[in-house]
Amino acid sequence: EAQVTQNPRYLITVTGKKLTVTCSQNMNHEYMSWYRQDPGLGLRQIYYSMNVEVTDKGDVPEGYKVSRKEKRNFPLILESPSPNQTSLYFCASSLSGGHYEQYFGPGTRLTVT
Amino acid sequence: AQSVAQPEDQVNVAEGNPLTVKCTYSVSGNPYLFWYVQYPNRGLQFLLKYITGDNLVKGSYGFEAEFNKSQTSFHLKKPSALVSDSALYFCAVRALLMDTGRRALTFGSGTRLQVQP
């Protein structure tokens, strides 16, 4: 089954404790992206990757890091999480970054206390 | 900068009635336009998109959308609503940002559709 998986689905952590949210897709997609969803703000792009070893900032990259060492994986790293990073996070992938629709993972609900 | 506006936080409609969820956008150049739906505790699912050509686009679950270039709108429509259509709907636009050269994807804030039996 074609899918995007994210882990963990739920995470409660404390300020400053480094964490990684994993994302994996099995569709051989070139383009992958991370979004955060906050009430009334829709989805905002954090980082995206056009292909292996090619990443770039989205609209709200501060406080986040990513890497793309393999085509299927695109982990999101929070080196020192803060309470304002409490949010619902989605990973997505698509064939490329043009007119192709994106496939979304189920989401990771992160709470930073 | 590009932007997407979904002017209604919530749309209420009775089952069997037609529904419209509004979306307007502001971009430089020609946009690609998308609609996604989000059911509770799920990720977003693609409904339909406009790239070029016919202004009326048909998508999944009986939904359609009309691209109107002069009004910069891309409203989502369905002739007869179902209770199961109740969900959160997002409009999105992808266009070339002139300052960065990036083809950014921007989402609206979402519209909650509530279909009453």
What oligomerization state is this entry in?
A: heterodimer
Structural class of chain B: mainly beta
- Secondary structure: helix percent of chain B: under 10%
- Given the structure, what is the number of helices of chain B? 0
> End-to-end span of chain A in angstroms?
36 Å
| Largest sheet properties of chain A | 7 strands, mixed
Q: What's the count of strands of chain A?
A: 11
- How many strands appear in the DSSP assignment of chain B? 12
Radius of gyration of chain B: 14 Å
Give the helices and strands of chain B as they follow along the chain: EEEEEEEEEEEE
- Output the structural class of chain A: mainly beta
Order of helices and strands of chain A: EEEEEEEEEEE
The CA-CA distance between the termini of chain B, in Å, is 41 Å
Major sheet of chain B: 6 strands, mixed
- Biggest interface, chains and residue tallies: A-B, 24 and 25 residues
- Integer average pLDDT of chain B: 92
The whole-number mean of residue pLDDT values of chain A reads 95
Shape of chain B: globular
**Shape designation of chain A:** globular
Notes on the structure:
The complex is a heterodimer of chains A (113) and B (117). By secondary structure, chain A is mainly beta. Chain A has no helices and eleven strands. In chain A, strands 2, 4, 5, 6, 9, 10 and 11 form a seven-stranded mixed β-sheet that branches. In chain A, strands 1-3-8-7 form a four-stranded antiparallel β-sheet, with no helix packed on it. Chain B is mainly β. In chain B, a hairpin with a 5-residue loop joins strand 5 and strand 6. Chain B is globular and about 50 Å long. The mean pLDDT of chain B is 92. The chains are: A mainly beta (113), B mainly beta (117). At the A-B interface, strand 5 and strand 10 of A face strand 5, strand 6, strand 10 and strand 11 of B.
Topology overview:
The complex is a heterodimer of chains A (113) and B (117).
Chain A: E1 4-7, E2 10-13, E3 19-25, E4 31-38, E5 42-51, E6 54-57, E7 65-66, E8 76-78, E9 87-94, E10 103-104, E11 108-112
Parallel strand pairs in A: 2-11
Antiparallel strand pairs in A: 1-3, 3-8, 4-5, 4-9, 5-6, 7-8, 9-10, 9-11
Chain B: E1 3-5, E2 10-14, E3 19-21, E4 24-26, E5 32-38, E6 44-50, E7 56-58, E8 64-68, E9 73-78, E10 87-96, E11 103-107, E12 111-116
Parallel strand pairs in B: 2-12
Antiparallel strand pairs in B: 1-4, 3-9, 5-6, 5-10, 7-8, 8-9, 10-11, 10-12
